[in-house]
Amino acid sequence: MKTQSESSLLSNFRSQRGERILEVDGTLTTQPVLEHVGISTWPGRLILTDHALYFEALRVVTYDKPKVYELAEDLKQVVKPELTGPWGSRLFDKAVMYKSTTLTEPVIIEFPELAGHSRRDYWLAIISEVLYAHRFVRKFDISGIDKEETILKAVLGIMRLQAIEELHFEVPNRYESLLLFSQCDKLPGGDVILETLASSIASRTSDRTNQPGTSRGMHAVLSNLGMVSPVNSGERLFVGEIVVGEISALQKAVTDSMNNYKKVELAQASVDGVKVDGLDTNLAVMKELLSPVSELWRVLLLLTSWDEPMKSMLFCFLFSYIIIRGWVIYFIVTVLLFSATFMFLTRLTNQGKQMSEVKVVSPPPLNTMEQLLAVQNAISKIEELVQDANIVLLKIRALLLAFPSQATDRAILALVLMALSLAIVPTKVLLLLVFLEVSTNNSPLRRASTERCTRRLREWWFSIPAAPVVVEKEKEDKKTR
To answer: One Pfam family of this protein, by short name (predicted)?
Structure first.
């Protein structure tokens, strides 16, 4: 009974919507299909139709009732590659995840194989093609014969891919390149292609209703046979919705998209070429790339630290004058125009030259033990940061919930004063006061008061109690099969 092509239950499901079976997998013991739901895992048979995905769990001598994973309805479906492994680990890249609003937890379908993940990629491509085809139908409200033709376009694309697979042609892990709707989802400007295709379908439907296209095409055929007089030279010759001698809107959209795709491929090749391995090396590259920003930040800290009073005073006077005169927006405009001018002049001077490389000094190599210690230290620092962030959030929660304390009274008073300031004081004056507060708090005249205020603020923060937290264990309510 395991060798039957289709169960009677599935046949009843399909007959209600006239579904066509596109692919079946899991019937061979050498190529099993596993379904992971929660902590349960079952082998079975996976069937794809032009409307849904069906999984029949394998019992002792027969298959279980098929589970239906809908692709035609709008259920906010998500289909993407997923990692699987024993005891919930993420080791093997050989699975597809299906998630929708009707499921309480996502379903993971695994395609085990010894090397690679070609089976997974193939199934991901054909499932996505059916899903995207129905999304296209719903988005542009296509119905009737046009809807059937649209679904058949996806079916024929899958059949073409199956034929290539049967002939053992090499498909370089780009299954979606043979599928219309999956390819449009990946191509730059693919949405324009789909919109143009929908417009073509709508115009064909209008011609079918009003019948002008039929008479126009019949007149062209009869004119070529010499049975009627030809059209005037100023008129265009139509073949269906295509004008002879002119590029159709759909062809133009596809051409533009392919040209953009070539540019994206070149850019992506450059991105793949600059990727480096190792956390320490990547940090060194990031440090070098952010060196202009870090240098600007260093200059700002120097100006606000008042280690060089003349420069700091000139900085304060200059920007205070800009704020008072209301020239902040003009300052931003000047910075943007300067950046655009710099980019334009750099482009003119570097025409025909290769982009200069970023030179990074490689950090000394680490042995295995040093790498493990570095990872452990990084994890410890991340844990400390998360703990500190949680403490901040818990203290803010205590303030918002008005936990009885002196700190809460001060916070309420500060919020009221801030609200009154925003309502009464002009924005220009507020911006000037904030700038002067930040830029002069380390000046010789204010250094002592700044240290005193900082100490009081720190004491106020430490006096805020954290909101209580109770950590409960997750209840094991998942059913095992």
So the answer is: DUF639
